[in-house]
Amino acid sequence: MILAGTIEASQLAQAVATKGYRACLSYAGRVERPKAQPIEKRSGGFGGVQGLFAYLREEQITHVIDATHPFATQMSENAVLACAKAGVPLLALTRPPWRPETTDRWHSVPDIPAAASALPAQKQNIMLAIGRMHLDLFAAQAQHHYVLRLVDPPAQTLALPDSTIIVSRGPFSTEQDIALMREHKVEIVVSKNAGGRGAYAKIEAARQLSLPVIMIERPVLSLPRDEAFLVTEAMDWIAGH
Asked: In this structure, what CATH number is given to the domain that contains residue 17?
C-alpha cells in the first residue's frame, strides 16, 4: 500500500504497476479530482492507528510506503505505529527539505500561524502557496490581497475577503510561475518547505524576481522510520523484503 498525495507517490504507482505488484494508492480525500493511476485507489482516513492496523490485517498488506506530503505528520506517525503493531515493513518515500541559496530572501517560520503573523502591516499582494486547508488562519491579516492557486475550487466562501483564486494542477515551470507572479504583482510568497522538484518552481521564480519568501519549515516526526528519497530506492527496498 502506498500512502499517497505527492508526485513521488504517482511515480511509485507507475513503477509498481510495471512490476505487476498487487498495490493500492490510499488518498486522504482532500483532493476532489485525484489524477488517474495504473493501480487501485482508495480515499479517506482509516480511523487512527487502530483503524489502519485493522486495514493492514484485512487486506493482507505486506509492505507500506508512506509517500504523503512532508507536512502530513499525523498520518505518518499513525503509519509508524500501525505498521509496528502489525509487523508490516514501512518505508517513507520523502524529499530532502529545500535549502536557501545565496540570493534567496527567506524568512523561516515554524508553522502556519507564525507565517500569518510574519506578514507586514501594510497591504501587499501575497501569494499563498500552502494548499487550501489552513487559509482561514490568514483572515486576521485581511488587509492583504491574496493570490491562491488551488487544485480544486473551494467548497465554501473563504474567510479572505480580498483574494484571487486560480484553479490549476501542477507541476508548474519556473517560467509559468514568474509570469503568474508578474501578472498578479506578487510582493511576498508564503510557502511550505515541501522539498523535491515538483513544487520548486515558485521558489526559483521568487529568487529570479528577488521576492521575499516566508518559508514554513516542516514539522519533525516524533517517531523514527526508514526513509528513501528516490523511487528506485523504494523499489529496491520492496525487492529486498
From this structure: 3.40.50.1000
Please tell me the pTM assigned to this model. 0.86
Print burial letters for 111-142: b (CB count within 10 Å at least 16), e (below 16): bbeebbebbeeeebbbbbbbbbebbebbeebe
3-class secondary-structure state, position 126: strand
pLDDT tens, 113-155? 999 999 999 999 999 999 888 899 999 999 999 999 988 888 8
Q: Using an 8 Å Cβ cutoff, are 88 and 62 in contact?
A: yes
The residue type found at 124 is Q
d(CA 180, CA 30): 25
Angle (nearest 5°) at CA 148 between 143 and 149: 170
Tally of domains in the chain = 2
